[in-house]
Give the backbone structure.
Amino acid sequence: MITPGISDPGQTQLRLKISLDPQNPGASRGVCPDLIEGDFPVGFGKHGLKAKGEAFEGGYSLLGDFVVNAILSVDRFEMKESLIRESGKSKKWLKEHLFANMSSIDFDLDGRAGEYGIGFLGLEPLDQSVRQPFHFGEYKGVFRWYSYAVHGTQNESRIGQKITGGCVNVSEAPLRKLIAGMQLGDGVRVDAVLPA
């Protein structure tokens, strides 16, 4: 097993590990020892989990090994060059508009935008043969990027619940450290807590 913060020869360095507990969502935790002391609570998909290697389906959180392919916030924009090309937009345009656009959408129709909180870490499956239906496009006339991610929330009571559209959500304090310290290509493992 790869330990967060320890390199595994021939693989991406795992920096963030997320353990999801489908039986007790409040026990779901993330750990990133080189950036955050201790563990922190996380929330996940309202319909549960999809096994490693499966394709994303709305409302389910994907298990498996991933690499960070984008870091988006008001203060930081990092994105793989291949994604920038795929967007059809310039890097400058994406830096100025993408996170703001994504944050402006009210997915849960509660009258409040900011569904991603202060930031968004895009996750790409390490196994490139696992094709995922993520893409750039418009939602209600707003250009955005659809991707599996670790992101914030505009309602911190959602942390520790099975409530998201599939992504892993994190409260602001740990997310601020992840946004500042994670790098493109860093490894993220999302696994399930096995019943005792």
